[in-house]
Structures are given as C-alpha cells and as structure tokens.
Amino acid sequence: MIDTPAPSMLRALPAAHRERLLRVAREVSFPQGTRLFEEGGRADRFWIIRTGTVDLDMHVPGRRAAVIESLRHNELVGWSWLFTPHVWHLGAEAATPVRAYEFDATAVRMMCEEDPELGRAVGQWVGDVLAHRLRSTRTRLLDLYAPWGADSAV
Q: What pTM value is reported for the model?
C-alpha cells in the first residue's frame, strides 16, 4: 500500500482560515536534539515546520524509542492538542535545527469554538493528519518488530 503524505495546512485549509491561524502563531527555533514533547506530557501547543526535520518517536519498553516518522517543511507537529485529554501520544525531537510556527492550543481551540466553519476545517485537517500518522505508526512498528516485516506475505 502506498501512503500519501499527510496534508499540509497550506493544502488542507482555505486561505482565510490559514491567515487567521497564522496571526496567532509565533516563530520559534529549536537546535538539533531538542525534545519538543514527551509521550504522556500535556499537549498545550503545536507547530508547523518551516525548515528542518522533526522525528516522531514512540517509547518501547526495554529498547530505544522507535522513530515512527520524520516530518519536514509545512508539516504539522502534534495533533494531541485537539483531542481530550490533550496528552501527547508520541514524542518529538528536532533531528536537525528547526524553525517553525508555534501555536497555543487553547487559543486555537477557542477560535474553533467561536467559528464553527474554522473548527470543522481544522478538525478535518488534523483528523486527516492523525489517520496518516496511525498508518505510518502501524507500518513502522511492523517493519521493526514483526517476524517477517510489513512487506512479507504470510
């Protein structure tokens, strides 16, 4: 199965919604090796990558964290901020120096509540990203831990 990339904010949201969100964003940068968040931590913000690479990883007991996916330009880092209980389901680390737009999750959720059209668009976008990440996680874990790998016939 060929998986298409997760939708970027530029492709997923109408221009007016993108502009509203970007007005509440702040520009941030992270040196290589910076942990953006840890699995189980409070999901109170999210990012859109401008430059660099962020690795999403998953804690595996007794092993090093498994890198699930590497995110790049225009990709969303973090989806747990939108869904109760607002706790990170994965970890994230800057694999290279990163520049990004950072968004306060509470402010964006309030914007979505106040403007149902914006809320639907953001919910659809983040839901599409979430579906992509779940497929990527499944494939990556099968590649790492299944006896024959994801591409083998049983």
A: 0.84
